[in-house]
Amino acid sequence: QVQLVESGGGLVQAGGSLRLSCAASGRTFSNYAMGWFRQAPGKEREFVATIAWSIANTHYADSVKGRFTISRDNAKNTVYLQMNSLKPEDTAVYYCAQSKYSSNSWDHRDYAHWGQGTQVTVSS
């Protein structure tokens, strides 16, 4: 059974940084792409970033490009999201997800397993 556990959320001022982590267990981590999504109050869940099994292959939502960096450590079964220059509009619950496939994807339907989410709040 796959388990994804996020950590690292919190309250930060605009312009600040946070690093989210997601520890995975239950199946061969390195075989699958990983993604981060977020959901703000009253809004639908949206794609943030994804990284393929091949660490060099990443993709970002336009809203976070240049500010956020996704990475993974296959030896530790962990994926990270480094968030810099945070803005109030980044406030949301952030979810880690594991894809059904090895290639990265922005489509939530391609993800089979989800974490419980971690709250990120950016104050102005």
**Mean pLDDT across all residues, rounded?**
95
Largest sheet: 7 strands, mixed
The whole-angstrom Rg is: 13 Å
Uncertain stretches of 5 or more adjacent residues: none
The coarse silhouette is: globular
SS class: mainly beta
Q: Roughly how many Å apart are the termini?
A: 40 Å
List the helices and strands and how they pair.
Layout: E1 3-7, E2 10-13, E3 18-25, E4 34-39, E5 46-51, E6 58-60, E7 68-73, E8 78-83, E9 92-99, E10 111-114, E11 118-123
Parallel strand pairs: 2-11
Antiparallel strand pairs: 1-3, 3-8, 4-5, 4-9, 5-6, 7-8, 9-10, 9-11
Keywords:
124 residues; mainly beta; globular
Explain what you see.
There is one protein chain. This protein has 124 residues and is mainly β. It is built from no helices and eleven strands. The strands form two sheets. Strands 2, 4, 5, 6, 9, 10 and 11 form a seven-stranded mixed sheet that branches. The protein starts with a strand and ends with a strand.
Summarize, please.
Helices cover 0% and strands 50% of the residues. It has 124 residues and is mostly beta strands.
